[in-house]
Structure formats: structure tokens, C-alpha cells
Amino acid sequence: MEYENGLSSPSSYLSNGSTDHDAAVPVMNPESGYNPDLLSLTKLSDSLDKLLCDDDYGYTDAVIVVEGVPVGVHRCLLAARSQFLHEFFKQGGGDNAREGKPRYPISDLVKKGHVGCEAFKYVLRYMYTGKLKLFPAEVSTCVDSSCAHDVCGPAINYAVELMYASATFEIAELVMLVQRRLLHFIGKAAVEDVIPILKVAFNFRLKELLPSCFETVARSYMDSIVLEKELPHEIYAEIKVQRDRFGEAGEPMVTEVNPSLEKSIKQIHKALDNDDVELVRRLLNESVVTLDDAYALHYATAYCHPKIFKEVLGLGLADLNLKDSRGYTVLHVAARRKAPSILLPLLYKGACAMESTSDGQTAVTICRRSTRPKDYFQETKQGQESNKDRICIDALEREMQRRISEAGYMSISPDAITDDIYRLDYLVGRGKPKCRIVCYVFSLVDLYFFGKICFPFLDVEEPHLMRVNIRCIRCAHNFMKE
């Protein structure tokens, strides 16, 4: 089904997840007076809304299971609103059909793409009431407090889910509204976040979206290897055609690679796809291509099983802070994937959390802006898998704080530290209580550190003693300056 021109001004209905439909429909008109039709429609909409929101009206006759959550529906109402659902329900079927209400997994209805529970309920509510509500913040915003939630990952992904549902159910007016919202994202969002928009636009032949998506991705600096991995063959072929066209016009989008080197790089990536690290070793030995030339660690970070990634990392041949064509280090790639079994080893090996992308984002910013509040604040029950989103964000924040603290401490000269110690000793001797507290802070610092920096004449060689509470030292130094 193709969608072309729709509502002339959808932005008045749907902007940043809000809508004028959220307000009550006026029933009085200053010119015409009382409007019974509007009042009737409003009451009808509110009454149908009760069927979804009020447990006392639980007269559903079927269940659609979305992300493990059973959602009760009324087949007659949905069939009347959607020809697709009418044809679907006519076929019968569904689990437990003989025992009571038939149950349909959402994957039986939406064959292309993913639709989350909140997105499905949003579309369902529109089908029942004809009204658009505010987007639920827990799934359409991120956990970065500095983000406007205009083009962050969750905002885009939620709109994409709405499109998969509304286009599958053939709700034309909702498709047009969401299509305009997705069009708003293109040009502002990172190219990685445009790819899911491109996929849904291609699947449903959304003619307003497709040209902009193709041009944005084709003009980006995302290398062909990543695009070939991320996109279906038909879409990638069109991207290649457009890039060739731009190249002929004197606008090369990516750096050209020597064909022989490109062949070796593809062989390395294919070996990684096959989990064959030993073959990667042999290919590196037999060619002039290095692990960094192939961005092999970037590739393993993005696409390989954690076990294979650790083997590639263990080769010790990659620059952990090397940036690819998009300006991403391996830690940036790991932050997008949000797998603790990949991100934590990188931090342990010394990947720099302070490195930023070409648009100024650090790994923790990337991680926060791709994480929904629903996922970050989800409580983990006993026996459940740990909250991966929170683990990754917390680990990156701790590493950032550690590096900032180290940088702050190194700005204090050894002479200043030595002076502070002598001043503290003098003030403590005069009975100053605050100084006794600060002295206690300094006592947390091992002798090795001060012996090597402040008192080089001391002979302290045990490396295991070099553990420093740097933030405490910094606070104490600031206190002495007051």
C-alpha cells in the first residue's frame, strides 16, 4: 500500500507528541450556537475510550499479546475501523480459540518491523476514539536531562513503531501524521537513527519520506561496509546508485578505498561474521591490511558475539581510540549497542570515555540519548537479567568522573600539596576541628603517592599502595584555599 499526500497540516495535530485533539472538542460556537453533532461525537469518543481504559468495561472478545503483555480488544470495532484487521479476523485462528478468547501475538499481525506495547496501545486508542493523545514520555524520550527529546533515539524509534502499526492496519490519516513527524527528524538526526526511518519508508513505499531518507543516507559519511550490513540488499543497492551519482557530480561522500585493500577488509569482516578469529590472524599476517585499516574492532563491537569481540580485543593490535569515518571510537559504538560484556572490557583496557564524536557527543551521552526511562528505571527482580542500560550508563559516568578527577588533581602542583600538608599540621596543632577532618581525608592517601610526588627522598616502592581518593584530595585542597 502506497501513501502519498495526506492531511494538509498535520503539524497542527501532532507536534512533539502533543495535539490539539487532547483538548475537549468545543460544543458551543459563538456564531452558530449549540452544536449537537460535535457533542454527540465527543460523547461517543469518550464512551469508546472507556472500553480501553476502564476495567469495569472489560467486554473484550480477543487478546493481542505485545511484548508479553495481553491487550484485550473488540474485534467488531477493529474490523470496522481497519479493512486489514477485518480480513485478518475473518480467517479465524488464534491460540486458545476453543477455550475462550482467541489470542494473537502481535507478530501475526505486524510482519514487518517491531511494534512495542505502548505504540500499539496508542494506535489502538486512536482507532477506538479518533483522538490523538500525548506520547508516553517513558518510551518517547531519553534519560539525558540536557536533551530536548526532539531527535533522540527513543523519540525516533517510537514514531517508527507507530508507523509500522498504523501502516500495517491501513489507518491512512494516522500514517500521514506520523509520516510528517518522521520527515521532521530527517536532517536533524544522526544518520544511524535515519536508517530505521528509511527501512519503514521503504517497506510501505512512503513517497514523502523515501527521497529524503535516501539522500540523507547516501550523502552521509557512513562507510559502505556498515551500510551493507545494516540495510536490506534492495535499499543498499539504491544507496550505491545515488552515491555513484553524487560521485560523478564531484561530490564523493566517502573516501575511496583501493580495491585490493577493500577485498582484504571484506575477508576480515567475513571471518568475524563466521566467528573465526584464527582466520583473522592469518589474513592480517598475509596482507598489508592492519586491524585498524579494517576497523575490525569497530566491526566486532557492533556485530559480533561478546566472546568473539573479546578475542579480537585480546589480540592487542587495535587502537582503542581510533575514529572511523563517522568519527566514532569503539567505545562510541559500544555505547550504541549497550552490551556490558562489550563496554566494560573496553573501559578496563583503557578506552577513553572523554573522546567525543564529530558532533560533540561522548560515549555516555550516546548511551543516555538512546535509553528510554522505561528501560533505565526498570526494577530487576530476583532471577531476572541485570539492567544492561543502567549498567552501561553508570559505568561510563564513573569512568568520566574518574578521568575528570584525575585531570583536576594533576592541576594541583606538588609544591601546593606539600604546603597544604604543613599548614594542616600547624592548624591541627592549634586545635582546629575542621582541619582535623581534612587531615583525616589526607590520611586516606597512601604513602606511596605522596612519597613519589611530594617527598621523592622517601624510599617507598610497593606499587600496590598507589590507591588515591583523588576527589577527597581535591576537596581538601580547595578547603585550604578558602
From TrEMBL:
Pfam families: Ank_2, BTB, NPR1_like_C. One of its GO terms (molecular function) is zinc ion binding. PANTHER family: REGULATORY PROTEIN NPR3, REGULATORY PROTEIN, PUTATIVE-RELATED. It comes from the Eukaryota. Residues 1-27 are annotated as: Disordered. Belongs to the plant 'ANKYRIN-BTB/POZ' family. 'NPR1-like' subfamily. Residues 60-136 form the BTB domain. Gene3D superfamilies: Ankyrin repeat-containing domain, Potassium Channel Kv1.1, Chain A. This is BTB domain-containing protein. InterPro entries: Ankyrin_rpt (IPR002110), Ankyrin_rpt-contain_sf (IPR036770), BTB/POZ_dom (IPR000210), NPR (IPR044292), NPR1/NIM1-like_C (IPR021094), SKP1/BTB/POZ_sf (IPR011333), Znf_C2HC_NPR-type (IPR057250). Residues 1-18 have a biased composition (Low complexity). Keywords: Metal-binding, Plant defense, Zinc, Zinc-finger. Residues 139-153 form the C2HC NPR-type domain. GO terms for biological process: defense response to bacterium; innate immune response; protein ubiquitination; regulation of defense response; regulation of jasmonic acid mediated signaling pathway; regulation of salicylic acid mediated signaling pathway; systemic acquired resistance, salicylic acid mediated signaling pathway. The keyword Metal-binding applies. Pathway: Protein modification; protein ubiquitination.
